[in-house]
Amino acid sequence: xxxxxxxxxxxxxxxxxxxxxxxxxxxxxxxxxxxxxxxxxxxxxxxxxxxxxxxxxxxxxxxxxxxxxxxxxxxxxxxxxxxxxxxxxxxxxxxxxxxxxxxxxxxxxxxxxxxxxxxxxxxxxxxxxxxxxxxxxxxxxxxxxxxxxxxxxxxxx
Length: 157
Known about the structure:
Blueprint: E1 10-14, H1 16-21, E2 22-32, H2 36-43, E3 53-55, E4 62-64, E5 85-88, H3 91-104, E6 107-115, E7 121-130, H4 133-156
Antiparallel strand pairs: 1-6, 2-5, 2-7, 3-4, 4-5, 6-7
Subcellular location: Cytoplasm
Pfam family, one: SmpB
Main location: cytoplasm
């Protein structure tokens, strides 16, 4: 029997700004309920999650303001690009998200949308706390110093 080839995750949309604006806490992997044209549009790799957020108020997690463009070949059967999309999580995970948002003043941000090994669309979401301006400056200084330190070690070594 032939071995099954494993493919790495195909990242469709990445929220790089979230790691700068927020201190990332616990990370979850969630499925996402999509229509057929949304999946085809995602496979072409043109989606955005930069300004989107997750809400879990009604007992189910919903991804708001994510942009998946219309699939051009679908004509009248197309989807709405910025519609709310239901996230598929366990009840305990949804409760943990909601408690963190209510009690600790955290927020839930999507980090990336990708296709897993089975070809299913997944969203990586995280519980995060917003950073202040001085925290962002400190993070930039630490990042720059780490880059300079790597450069120095590489030149010496």
